[in-house]
Amino acid sequence: MREVVIKALLVDPSNNSPVVLLKDRASRKALPIWIGDSEAISIAFGLQNEDFPRPLTHVLMKKMIEYLDAKIDKVIIKAVQDGTFFASIYVRDAQGDVMEFDARPSDSLALSLRSGCQIFVADDVFSSEAIESPFAEEDEFHDFVDDDLDLGEFRKWKEWAEAESEES
Amino acid sequence: MREVVIKALLVDPSNNSPVVLLKDRASRKALPIWIGDSEAISIAFGLQNEDFPRPLTHVLMKKMIEYLDAKIDKVIIKAVQDGTFFASIYVRDAQGDVMEFDARPSDSLALSLRSGCQIFVADDVFSSEAIESPFAEEDEFHDFVDDDLDLGEFRKWKEWAEAESEES
Fold it and tell me: pLDDT (tens digit, 9 = 90+) per residue, B38-73?
């Protein structure tokens, strides 16, 4: 297994879909995972440590888990089939017992950002799906998202990415 | 406070936005609440008791809460301000203690469907925002959603609603 970090949240111009880039801590390779719009917004707000005016779903999940004396232990991207990724979220309860929950990568990543837990990718998934990271090692994530990202901004950002791709 | 049931999931043709209609159990009145697309999909699958091929966020939340020996006690639509509704989700832990969580109505309704808990609306919210229900008392919810609703179908359904509104 490899530990990865969320390196960028981008828009794939071919289908206007948000992509999370999971960068291997130990190499220059990164795993792109396509996610939905609302999950992208949740991840974007989590990355920027910003408060959304209303409680977002994954913030709510984290609060409930913490109220119940549990925590998110880690998340693992475990498998890929026909371009669909499968993940697990591990929840540690007050007794220290850990339960694995089948989850989509988007929920797993959004929750990991709120809880600060580590993100892992299974070796076979990483070796078959990873690409060379397009970013320099020293680049910080915040170079790749709008500083004042909100729902409206996110749409504009997507439209901009689309326009850019049509021009090129 | 009034107990309501989710009576219909519709599309508002003026802005192509999904609307949940919360019908008062004790009268013919209903409260419309506008929600996001992904929340509408989650609610639609919850209403139809259908499994989505991947674990949806609110199903995951419910599973985690249950694993931690807790349950969703009830949800209440508590306030409205400038057309934005504010809700609370009440979680009962293993000791019987109940905690209130500030939440959006869409998360509250999606979770209530998974847990089977009751939905309430504060009297002042209901009296200021409720409309006459456009449906007959005996109508069942499933008359108003597509039987084979999936992500693609949901989009088609929205487009259909939009086309209908342009024609009329």
Answer: 788 778 877 777 666 778 899 999 999 999 999 999
Full-model pTM: 0.80
β-pair type (A71-81, A118-121): parallel
Q: By three-state DSSP, how is residue A28 classified?
A: coil
Tell me the ipTM for this assembly: 0.80
Contact between A55 and B89 using a beta-carbon 8 Å cutoff = no
Tokens found for residue B128:
């200021």
Q: What is the rounded distance in angstroms from the CA atom of residue B31 to the CA atom of residue B105?
A: 12
Residues 83-122 of A with CB under 8 A from B: 84, 89, 91, 93, 99, 101-104, 107
How far is the alpha carbon of B35 from chain A, nearest alpha carbon, in Å? 12
**Per-residue pLDDT at A149 exceeds 80:** no
Domain spans of chain B, in order of start: 2-152
CB B9 within 8 A of CB B40: yes
Q: What is the CATH number of domain A2-152?
A: 3.10.690.10
Closest CA to B6 of B77, B90, B72, B58: B77
> What type of residue is B15?
N
How far is Cα B106 from Cα B129, in angstroms, rounded to an integer?
17
Cβ atoms B129, B80 nearer than 8 A:
yes
